[in-house]
Amino acid sequence: MIKLLGRTDSINVRKVLWLCDELDLAYQREDWGRGFRSPKEQAFLQLNPNATIPVLIDEELTLWQSNSIIRYLANAYGGSALYPTEPKTRALIDQWIDWQGIELNNSWVYALMHLIRNSPEHQDLKEVEKSIQAWNSMMLILENQLANTQAYVAGQQFSLADIPIGLSVQRWYLTPFEKPDCPNVKRYYDRLSQREAYLKWGNNGQN
């Protein structure tokens, strides 16, 4: 059985948990991170020198970086319906997974740390507004993509890319600031909310 290290209120841990439910994959989980055991403990650093969650342990394999973990699990445990091997189809899925991990994720950091985490190091209101504008701009890119597909982010079928992006949509809605009208994003959110695993790990009130 695989083991997952990380707290359930982490968006990156919830990526893995959502996928495990989609794959009906059994796992053991240990609480690590804010409010629990520190990932800066030596035992954890030996598994992940970055001191970040989640970490996956599958027999002799130790893996960190949430998007790498979900790719591995889809490959290793029968997730070809979510992560097809056909090169062009997979490339589009990877494109949107990487977009979430780089452009979208980086856009929200300052605003989230100020508005949700109340971080004393993120109190520059100009930087907060700059982050909000960047975040909204990224969501408008998603809005345009969903207008094209009229379904899911990489096409007509639910895919691995919808897991990190679906969680990101939840985070956008829950963070309090003025947002542009994005009807396709709203329909996407409602569509994902028909999935039991998303109601458990995505649309569950956690930011």
UniProtKB/TrEMBL annotation:
<dbReference type="Pfam" id="PF00043">
    <property type="entry name" value="GST_C"/>
</dbReference>
<dbReference type="InterPro" id="IPR004045">
    <property type="entry name" value="Glutathione_S-Trfase_N"/>
</dbReference>
<dbReference type="InterPro" id="IPR036249">
    <property type="entry name" value="Thioredoxin-like_sf"/>
</dbReference>
<dbReference type="Pfam" id="PF02798">
    <property type="entry name" value="GST_N"/>
</dbReference>
<protein>
    <submittedName>
        <fullName>Glutathione S-transferase</fullName>
    </submittedName>
</protein>
<dbReference type="InterPro" id="IPR004046">
    <property type="entry name" value="GST_C"/>
</dbReference>
<dbReference type="InterPro" id="IPR010987">
    <property type="entry name" value="Glutathione-S-Trfase_C-like"/>
</dbReference>
<dbReference type="GO" id="GO:0016740">
    <property type="term" value="F:transferase activity"/>
</dbReference>
<dbReference type="InterPro" id="IPR040079">
    <property type="entry name" value="Glutathione_S-Trfase"/>
</dbReference>
<comment type="similarity">
    <text>Belongs to the GST superfamily.</text>
</comment>
<feature type="domain" description="GST C-terminal">
    <location>
        <begin position="86"/>
        <end position="207"/>
    </location>
</feature>
<feature type="domain" description="GST N-terminal">
    <location>
        <begin position="1"/>
        <end position="81"/>
    </location>
</feature>
<keyword id="KW-0808">Transferase</keyword>
<dbReference type="InterPro" id="IPR036282">
    <property type="entry name" value="Glutathione-S-Trfase_C_sf"/>
</dbReference>
